[in-house]
Amino acid sequence: MKPLSSLAGMAGTPQSVEYRVGIVGAGPVGLALALRLSDHGIGSVIFDDNPGLKREGSKACLIQGDVLEILDKSGCAAQVHREGVQWTHGNVYIRGTQIVRAQYELGNRWGPFVNISQYRIEQILLAEVERRADIEVCWSSRVEQLEERAEGVTLALRRQGVDQTRAFAWVVACNGVRSNVRELLGVNWLGYRHTSQFLITDIRAKLPFSKERHFHFDPEFNRGYQTIIHPQPDDVWRIDWQLPPGVDVERDKVDGGLERRIRAVIGDVDYELLWMSVYRFQQRRAERLVAGRVMLAGDAAHALPPYGSRGMNSGIQDADNLAWKLALVMRGCADRSLLETYHVERTAAARENIDVTERTIRFMVPANPVVRLRRRALFVLARRFRAFRRFVNSGTMAQPHRYLDSPLVQPPSTAAAVGRFAADADLSVGGQPVKLRSLLGRGFTFLFVGDRPPALLPLPGEAPRALGPLPVNAVVVMAGTGSGPVAQPSTPQLQWARANAAVLRHYVAGRWHLVRPDMHVASVFDGRRADEFEAALRHGSQAFAMAARLDASAQPDVELIAA
Ligand SMILES: Cc1cc2nc3c(=O)[nH]c(=O)nc-3n(C[C@H](O)[C@H](O)[C@H](O)COP(=O)(O)OP(=O)(O)OC[C@H]3O[C@@H](n4cnc5c(N)ncnc54)[C@H](O)[C@@H]3O)c2cc1C
Fold first, then answer.
1. Are residues 556 and 463 in the same domain?
2. Atom of ligand 1 nearest to the CA of 61
3. For residues 16 and 43, what is the distance between their CA atoms, to the nearest angstrom?
4. Looking at the predicted structure, is the pLDDT value of residue 500 above 70?
């Protein structure tokens, strides 16, 4: 880390370090982080240089169902889902001929994707932030300098024109792609900026297109280039053009070129232009996500092209990954080395995102005339023959990263579930329909899936168990042995559920899984010996000790009611 300039002499040098997290940036990632920290009992202060949320049309327009699971833990998913456009099919066309109609699995209660503006998501997150007493938001507050000391980080702020300082035990920079915090830390920004220009317009119009993703290669209305059309709520459509070199959009606006461009796509339909901007995307990541007591998240940590919808979505996943680790460290349950696993896991995720989008870009923007010619030949073949269509790369929609090379994932990691975002399943608990994921993500969960009861239970008795601020619970899912309820009363600590055999596709039958607070599976183990539970928890959390020791009980007394 580059040495930080001294803040000595600044007005209002703080006397004490606030034992909260200082968050720089009130974009979707900063807001989501504050909420997840609050869910885990940790307070925070968010600083943003704008006077309030900034309405910008051309940012994220799509949130993934798996990321809505994260927002659901903070009570924000249902509204996003209700207001957004839910879609399950993506269409790919070459010169107007449809070559692919892909169906994405529903997978969870939110569906694969919901289209909605980033601004609306931010509004919903902010409304929840304002309901939480342990989150303070400081608008018109620009972080201009920072200095790390042994016990915390001092932020030098310009707040409504006045200089002041505040100090926090930990600081997370969620301040976007141009993060000055990243620069102040001297963290390398690896990667490159692409030269192709893209134009985004958000228009309001009643269009005859199905409310799905439409990806056009080489269409009549953008010969030789790509155009993507995405529905938004309230008859708003996002149209995203790759522009030929040399197009001057500002001039186009004046001389009618933009009007002609839009008309070529939508025809003679009334429309209102709500937003227009031109962008060149980047493929970058910060070399370090943890620098002393400062962490980077969201666009401050990685800048990605919009293909596959990875920017905001992966930023919210960063926040979820970091929040529980900070909670354990701040409550003195784990050493600060746990935060290093944030760097390891989320760097691996950023790398995967960059690798996948790099392949898409190479296909979309051929590097030279030979590659362009090869692509043209592929287009001819793909329009006629199904076998060639899988080589047409229109972007791969993102999946939550599978953490394999992580110190928190317990070897052997060969079981398919290990490291993955826990798959959802339809359960019946006490005769009521319940989604498995609704029982996960508030703390650590021991999850058993099998067709006969487990040999041992990790959490006997009524007393709540916790790892510092994070509750520890258990869920036993009896799968495939009939559809009747399990005659075992559930408690908040131990839920008994019934599911059909489909759940066994995602979990290892007859074994225990430790699911982390970010709903990734840390390990799979037999659970035939009492000490295996505590060992799994120690490995998956790197915590020093349990607030209450786990004592696995003997063979549970379970009566199964056959269907
Ligand atoms: C055209 C386009 C389309 C996109 N489509 C998608 C999509 O469909 N899906 C998807 O997942 N992502 C998409 N993205 C990416 C997405 O918009 C970003 O990933 C997202 O905004 C990142 O959120 P963030 O909170 O990290 O940063 P930001 O949203 O950039 O928020 C950072 C905040 O920090 C503030 N700030 C900056 N510096 C300071 C400072 N020193 N002090 C105080 N405050 C500061 C800024 O004013 C800002 O409010 C798209 C992006 C673009 C440009």
1. yes
2. 8
3. 16
4. yes
Whether this model's pTM surpasses 0.90: yes
Among 251, 279, 307, the domain-final residue is: 279
Q: Tell me the CB-side half-sphere exposure of residue 157, using CA atoms within 13 A.
A: 27
- CATH code of the domain covering residue 493: 3.40.30
- Does ligand 1 lie within 6 Å of residue 312's CB atom? yes
Same domain as 533, residue 468: yes
Q: Which residues pair with 173 in a beta bridge?
A: 24, 296
Choose one of 312, 316, 318, 353 to mutate for the ligand 1 pocket test, by most ligand atoms within 8 angstroms of C-beta.
312
**Residue 387 exposed, middle or buried by CB count within 10 Å (0-12, 13-18, 19+):** exposed
Q: Is 118 in the pocket of ligand 1 (CB under 6 A)?
A: yes
Q: Which of 468, 469, 449, 451 is nearest to 524 (CA)?
A: 449
Q: Residue 49's Cα: distance from chain center in Å?
A: 24
pLDDT digits (tens, 9 = 90+) for 120-170: 999 999 999 999 999 999 999 999 999 998 889 999 999 988 999 999 999
Whether residue 398 is contained in a domain is answered as no
Predicted confidence (pLDDT) at residue 482 exceeds the cutoff of 80 = no
Residue 253: domain span: 198-279
Q: Is the CB of residue 300 less than 8 Å from the CB of residue 177?
A: yes
Say if residue 249's pLDDT is above 80.
Answer: yes
Domain with 140 in it: what CATH number? 3.50.50.60
Given a contact cutoff of 8 angstroms between Cβ atoms, the answer to whether 325 and 463 are in contact is: no
Residue 412: asked if its preceding bond is cis (omega within 30°), the reply is yes
**What would the DSSP string read from start to end of 285-333?**
EES-SEETTEEE-GGGTEE--STTS-HHHHHHHHHHHHHHHHHHHHTTS
Q: Are residue 433 and residue 526 in the same domain, yes or no? A: yes
- Verify that 364 and 353 share a domain, yes or no: no
Specify the residue with its C-alpha closest to ligand 1, atom 8: 60
State the pairing for strand pair 162-173/189-193: unpaired
pLDDT(396) > 90? no
Q: How many Å lie between the centroid of ligand 1 and the Cα of residue 175?
A: 7
Ligand 1 centroid to Cα of residue 177, in Å, is: 7
Number of structural domains (the chain) is 4
**Angstrom distance (rounded) from CA 359 to CA 440:** 34
Mean pLDDT computed over 308-328: 95
Ligand 1 neighbourhood includes 62 CB (under 6 angstroms): yes
Note the pLDDT tens digit of each residue in 202-218: 999 999 999 999 999 99
Q: Which residue's CA is the closest to the ligand 1 atom numbered 27?
A: 176
Structure tokens at 392: 């047409």
94 domain residue, yes or no:
no
351-390 pLDDT tens trace: 999 999 998 888 888 888 898 899 999 998 989 999 998 8
CB-based contact 289:301 (threshold 8 Å): yes
| CA 223/CA 277 separation, integer angstroms | 20
